[in-house]
Amino acid sequence: MTATVRHFGINADDVPRAKAFYESVFGWRFETWGPPGFYLINGAGIGGALQGRHEIKPGAKMLGFEVTMAVDDVKATLAAVEAAGGKIVMQPTHIETVGTLIWFEDTEGNLAGAMQYDSDAPH
User: Fold this and answer.
1) Residue 123: inside a domain
2) Contact call for residues 32 and 39 (beta carbons, < 8 A)
3) Tens digit of pLDDT for each residue in 21-32?
4) Does the residue 122 lie in any domain?
5) Number of domains within the chain
6) Cβ atoms 75, 92 nearer than 8 A
7) Is beta strand 55-57 parallel, antiparallel or unpaired with respect to 47-52?
8) What is residue 116's predicted lDDT score, i.e. its pLDDT?
9) Which residues have a Cβ under 8 Å from the Cβ of 7 and sit 6 or more positions away?
10) Within a domain: residue 103?
11) Does residue 44 lie in a domain region?
12) CA-CA 20 to 30 A from 71: which of 55, 79, 104, 122?
């Protein structure tokens, strides 16, 4: 089973401040998309988002950048995570026009996502 990094997210307590920072430092541009305070990042090389900080699992807010791997079969990935000693912290959830996402915790306590992208999802 192979997976490629396809998406990263920047979590921020103050989204407008973070937006201004990344526009100034890297010249990235932001496009409003989805829920309020959620932006797609243009110019980062791979799919990225800027969003308000949120909990991936109860009591654990994402402090750094988050990463999502593109996988061919999210159910097989879920099974592989558990078989390798990881924990599923969010069961498969479908995001309209994007795909089906899980969040998992690896054996070291790191949180990451795996997404089976819909065939017509934007790249």
Assistant:
1) no
2) yes
3) 899 878 899 999
4) no
5) 1
6) yes
7) unpaired
8) 96
9) 46, 47, 48, 49, 67, 68, 70, 113, 115
10) yes
11) yes
12) 55
Quote the tokens at residue 47. 């799919």
Buried b (16+ CB within 10 A) or exposed e, 101-123: bbbbbeeeeebbbbbbbeeeeee
Amino acid at 59: G
**CATH of residue 40:** 3.10.180.10
The rounded distance, in Å, linking the Cα atoms of 108 and 98 is: 28
Q: What is the pLDDT of residue 123?
A: 59
Query: Rounded distance, CA 56 to CA 90, Å?
Result: 8
Please write the tens of the pLDDT for every residue from 9-67: 998 989 999 999 899 878 899 999 988 889 999 998 899 999 998 888 888 788 778 89
Question: What's the domain range around 98?
Answer: 4-117
Per-residue pLDDT, 38: 92
CA proximity to 66, closest of 81, 55, 79, 80: 55
**Percentage of the residues of the chain whose pLDDT score is greater than 70:** 98
> How far is Cα 112 from Cα 118, in angstroms, rounded to an integer?
19
